Amino acid sequence: KQEVTQIPAALSDPEGENLVLNCSFTDSAIYNLQWFRQDPGKGLTSLLLIQSSQREQTSGRLNASLDKSSGRSTLYIAASQPGDSATYLCAVIAGTYKYIFGTGTRLKVLA
Amino acid sequence: DAGVIQSPRHEVTEMGQEVTLRCKPISGHDYLFWYRQTMMRGLELLIYFNNNVPIDDSGMPEDRFSAKMPNASFSTLKIQPSEPRDSAVYFCASSSPGLARGTQYFGPGTRLTVL
Q1: Which of residues 25 through 84 in chain A touch B, CB cutoff 8 A?
Q2: What integer is the mean pLDDT of B1-21?
Q3: Which of A73, A101, B33, B55 could be B93's S-S partner, Cβ–Cβ 3.0 to 4.6 Å?
């Protein structure tokens, strides 16, 4: 059974730092991996989608890497800002439209 | 586009009552998903539809839960009778094969509290 874990569960850092959020999964047979952002009381916003044949994706200050063989993905946030404060979720796409979500990392960026 | 629309945004009910959650997917999307989010279990897929037909309902917790999609622009998730352990945020999402490998767009969620 696929299990997705995110470490750390919570992170608090001053603004301007380069941050690293980790996602690990137990079964490397995945289609894609996606990172989402969730603001309090809101739905999920897709940040980056990494297809299984790719090693990384970049969007602005965000960069996500994928290492299927080791069952790991990392989300890098460069030059963090208070507006980056949110919960970040990774989801493994294990079958057609079958999303398995991680436990989330609650990020707080201090001004 | 207005995005995925869910109603109500908040629902408070008493144990034993019937609860109906509603979702309108993004126009043109032919996949619709229902998720439940709790502190203990995180985000879990309950059921998903393709072209209004349920494809996988293995995540539906028990017979008290039922979901329907009578047409391409509307879906309901019903809980009857509701129990306190059903308290959670319920999300609806939609997608289309034309999107990058099935990217899903999520609604704002319905926060359900069962007293």
Answers
A1: 31-32, 34, 36, 41-46, 49, 51
A2: 94
A3: B33
